[in-house]
Amino acid sequence: MTAPFALPSAKRYALTQARVLGRSLPKPEGPLDFDGFASVDILVDDGAIAKIAPAGAVDFGDAPRVALSGRIVLPLFVDAHTHIDKGHIWRRKRNPVGDFPSALAAARERWRDRITLQAAPIFSVDFALDRSHMADVEAMLDAHGTGILGAVTYMVPRLREGLKTLFELAERKGWELDFHVDESADPAACSLKILADMAIERRFARPILVGHCCSLALQEDDERQKTIDAVARARISVVSLPMCNLFLQDRHPGRTPRWRGVTALHELKAAGVNVMIASDNTRDPFYAFGDLDMMETWREAVRILHLDYPFADWAPAVAAAPARAMGLDLGQLRPGGRADMILTRARDFPELLARPQSDRIVIRSGEPSTAELPDYDELDGLKGLAP
Ligand SMILES: [Zn+2]
Fold it and tell me: How many angstroms separate the alpha carbon of residue 289 from the centre of ligand 1?
């Protein structure tokens, strides 16, 4: 990396004149610019953020300085919906997916202290009516889970019964719920309303996250608004998966797509719903591209969903909003917190979102990550991956 970003080896150093979104700070630190950024100095000490102050306001003594000269510093990204169990299997997609619990346990151990993983099972809602299946799911979550029960809703005849079973299990165990919902271009797909009404009726107290909700965007205005009101009342969080939905929805051979495939995210946000975006599938049969990179997800989402003007209003959709949905203390830079942040070369949102930010520096506990992007050929030795 070139000089402006060379970090000192010292445990105590100052990042000066960093651009940090006002909403990513716990309290105001001087005036905000047009995009909503504050200009701040950040003192890092022994892996933690020791102090954040308006640029130039505090003398940090002999601490080495890294002059960021107005470059943007972001909190860590939070990806609320992805499928790591089948990522990068594009070339062996006809082969069955490996054993989920052991793959998850291995992944969680390997990435401890670098990535916090929360896992949810995924199966069609009609399987909730199969007692032996649900006994297996309960046992698997007891052994390997993180207190989150998940399923995919379809407009099957016994949808309500299936949902009721899932709610009952989650209530008995104190689990959260995470659903794939109405990933369909059929306006008649309205399981989101049924799910939200059930959550309200049962006074379900734990967090609920729903993903996709594509058909909501294609429903009549009145009907859509009733569903959005119910989602807001039920305090359900909504995650849009814009890259995967753009890829899968409105796909017909020989016909140019007319629809971007995404849910009514602006309307949900306006109703006070906690909304966010996430990556979803990665190089598998559901999405041929992607790299589990929330910077890519953000920049693509800005284009697909118009998450701009003001850009800052939507910046929480990749950090603070999913952190809230997942109960994680992330999404902000705050004194006393771990010195975890992302340094970029950009000075405003168009600069940030124009490039993939491949030269960003990820700082964990005060130290720059030295991890290299893996080569595709590292996958070649994996079971079932035919050359
Ligand atoms: Zn998904």
Answer: 14
